[in-house]
Design brief:
Length: 321
């Protein structure tokens, strides 16, 4: 909790908040400020209580009212605050999969950073929200080794309880070398099996062992042996397993760097981490990017977003500062 930016309110009334939200949306026009104030100062569980109280008090669906009154990215962020972390990820996976084309970067960001329990919660939320099976949708929208990696990860079969073993780490590092740099072509199935099954502790040992037997290191091997989305997925696994906080800070930066902003990646990252470890991510972001004159996270949000969308994202990131 110490690394959160959003905490449960110590004193609040679900009935009072429901009335405030109704007043903000009733009549001609919408008052956005009270809506922002509530969704950035309540926990997800408290917001769910407010949503239920809104239905009880007014016989109306809060999300439907928000959908009718708000627009664009601001609407997306406000409505997503009433979802649990697995529901947030399920929502953004659905956004990535439906319609024309698939947003592979969003699939990778979500699926490659989950524990076994989180995978099961994600699949359950996806089914309950959309009456669809996540694995089936992944199979329908991706192909080849990339599809195989995502489907394998969604089985939630990682050996999380196993302690790291240097001897087997050296053996599997050699397997990876033999399947990639030391052969003509690449046997992706070897990379897949080891990266999907082994515990994070064991994989860190494997990465170190690989760096000892290869001149180039594991990250270079992935860059040389893989392509496109598959390369990005394996690189994500490596970076996340080595340092989750640094990975999330870099992902936030990538969502905003260059021309334009990847709003889906930005929203999902802020929404899914604000009640978890966004405070630590902010500090890493500042250390990594402010030192080269690019400013802290708040500076980036100020320059890459605008209007009520900017206000709510900056407040979610600032939290109770």
């Amino acid at each position: 909790m110490a690394n959160c930016t959003i905490f449960p309110a110590e004193e609040y009334s679900a009935e009072d908040d429901a009335q405030t939200l109704r007043k903000a949306m009733k009549g001609w026009g919408t008052s956005e400020s009270p809506i922002i104030d509530i969704v950035v100062s309540r926990s997800c569980e408290q917001l769910k209580e407010i949503e239920a109280m809104y239905k009880t008090s007014f016989g109306r669906d809060l999300k439907e009212d928000l959908k009718d009154e708000l627009r664009g990215n601001f609407q997306d962020v406000v409505m997503a605050r009433f979802l649990s972390p697995p529901e947030i990820d399920a929502l953004y996976l659905r956004k990535a999969l439906k319609g024309v084309g698939t947003r592979e970067s969003l699939l990778i960001q979500i699926i490659c950073t989950k524990t076994n329990d989180e995978i099961e919660e994600l699949k359950k939320a996806y089914n309950e929200m959309f009456e669809r099976e996540l694995v089936d949708d992944i199979i329908g929208d991706t192909t080849g080794p990339f599809e195989e990696l995502l489907v394998a990860l969604l089985q939630g079969g990682r050996e999380e309880e196993k302690e790291g073993c240097p001897c087997t780490a050296a053996e599997e590092a050699q397997e990876i070398l033999d399947a990639g740099e030391d052969r003509w072509g690449t046997d992706e199935s070897v990379f897949n099996r080891i990266f999907v099954l082994r515990s994070y502790d064991q994989l860190r040992l494997i990465f170190s062992a690989y760096d000892e037997i290869s001149e180039n290191g594991i990250e270079h091997a992935i860059s040389e042996e893989m392509s496109d989305e598959l390369k990005t997925a394996f690189q994500t696994l490596i970076h996340f397993i080595k340092d989750p906080v640094a990975y999330h800070a870099k992902a936030l930066h990538q969502a905003m760097e260059g021309v334009g902003t990847n709003d889906l990646l930005l929203q999902r990252m802020v929404l899914s981490r604000c009640e978890n470890d966004l405070g630590a991510i902010k500090e890493n972001f500042k250390t990594t990017f402010a030192d080269v004159g690019k400013g802290d996270l708040d500076h980036w949000l100020e320059n890459d977003t605008s209007g009520d969308y900017e206000k709510i994202l900056r407040k979610l990131c600032k939290g109770q500062e």
